[in-house]
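Dear support,

I submitted the protein below through the web form. The confirmation email said the job was done, but the results page showed an empty box. After a refresh the structure appeared. I'm attaching both so you can tell me whether what I see now is the final result or a partial one.
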Amino acid sequence: MNKNYLLPGEPLRKGVDLIADKKSGGLIVIGSSNKLEKISSGGINLKNCSYTPEMLSELAKMDGAVIVDENVSAILKANVHLNPSDNLQTSETGTRHRTAERVSAETNLKVIAVSEESSAIKVFHNMKVIELEEPAMILGRVNESLQSVDRMRRRFDEVLLQLGELEMEDTITNQQVLTVIQRGELLIRLANQVKNEAENLGEEAGIVMIQIESLESGVEYTLSLVLKDHLPSKKYRNIKKAKSEISNMTYEELNTISHLGAILMMQPLDEISTPRGYRVLARLPGLPDNLHDPLIKKFKTLPKLLGASTDKLFQVDGIGRNRAQQLRDYFDTLLKNIGFSYINGH
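What the results page shows now:
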């Protein structure tokens, strides 16, 4: 039973929800085995009984357990009396739940117990117990988490905008770059957590997933460009190692800028970090990615790149005369927006 048949909207979940709503209580075993046969007695063998939520709900009204095949496509037996070993430890108190936990432990099958009094649904498997939540509760928590992702995205965009302005002026410090990296990583982690929560919504997760994807759109790519722009090349020949080290950091470590700076060798924090120009080049529509490295290799830093003449740009492998002029016009537009020109020295 690899598929999670207990997600909201799945037929098995609909069936146990019906049992819970009717407060009839129920015990359902998913799958069959020789061990299960040994601890079973009585019951009704059902032939050609296709699974439906309604049928499960009706059969659960009998005293015994209902046995469903592992693919939840057929109901195999009903009114089965289960007699697991009393020597197996259980943390449960009610008879139905104690039986469910022991049967699961003895057979290694998934067993579902629905409380008659409280309508709580518990799933026993692999020596663990999980109580299913109502979809409305999950959705409420996911929506709260989405609001946190939205706030984090706005904070990330704010520092990213500031980063772009200060990079153009060549006044960005290590601390300001590290703040962008920190907030971007926190945003990615939070978005992944919400995705994991949203998966428990089953068929209702679609809209939530679209919202999350929209909120985290472009973040990972942007972080990669920031790292390529600012990581010290002596330690990092490529950004894969840096990204791995960042992802392995604890939240406490990530929230300490000085620790992040030490890991990435971006210290002291108030030192100017001159960008190489990858992010600026990536924002030019139509410029192939394979031209980024030759341009950066030629001019080394963003200030030198922005100050390059059309003739100098034309000297770069792969850059034709028209492309060189396109780059020069693009750089001039950027420089006018911040009120000075590297070429004129103002």
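Response: this is the final, complete result; the empty box was a page-load delay. The chain has three domains: 11-132, 136-263, 285-337.
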